[in-house]
């Protein structure tokens, strides 16, 4: 998959972690939960990209 997708996914995870820490520091439970959700989405998207990359490698190996 493209580097742009990987960068966006990592950025979403990092932004979520920052949001989560900010919520924790300020006592804002909604912000903390939202940040945790954003970070989880970013990690899930990254995992999906890794699966796609692995599938492409397997497909390429069988073509040759």
TrEMBL record:
It comes from the Bacteria. Residues 17-64 are annotated as: Disordered. InterPro entries: CsbD, YjbJ_sf. Residues 5-56 form the CsbD-like domain. Residues 33-64 have a biased composition (Basic and acidic residues). Belongs to the UPF0337 (CsbD) family. This is CsbD-like domain-containing protein. It comes from Planotetraspora silvatica.
């Amino acid at each position: 998959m493209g580097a742009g997708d990987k960068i966006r996914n990592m950025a979403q995870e990092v932004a979520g972690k920052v949001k989560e820490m900010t919520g924790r520091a300020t006592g804002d439970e909604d912000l903390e939960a939202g940040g945790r959700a954003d970070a989880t989405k970013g990690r899930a998207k990254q995992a999906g990209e890794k699966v796609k990359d692995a599938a492409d490698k397997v497909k390429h190996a069988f073509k040759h």
